[in-house]
Amino acid sequence: MNRIPSPSATPALLALVGLFVFSGCDENVGSGLLEAIPQSLDFGEVRVGETALTPLTLQNGGFQDVNVEAPVSTGDAADAFSVADQGWPYSLTQGDIVVLQVSFAPTATGAQESTVTIAYGGAVSLEVPVSGIGLVAEGTDADGDGYPDVEGGGDDCNDQDPLVNPGATELCDDAIDNDCDGTIDVGEDADSDGSDACIDCDDTSNTIYPGADELCDGLDNDCDQTVDEEVVISDWYTDQDGDGYGDSDSEPVSSCDEVPGSAPNGDDCDDQDEDIHPNAIEYCDYKDSNCNGEIVDHYLDDDGDGRPNCVDDDTGDDDDSAGDDDDAGDDDDSGDDDDSGDDDDS
Question: Which CATH superfamily is domain 3-135 in?
Answer without folding.
Answer: Immunoglobulins (2.60.40.10)
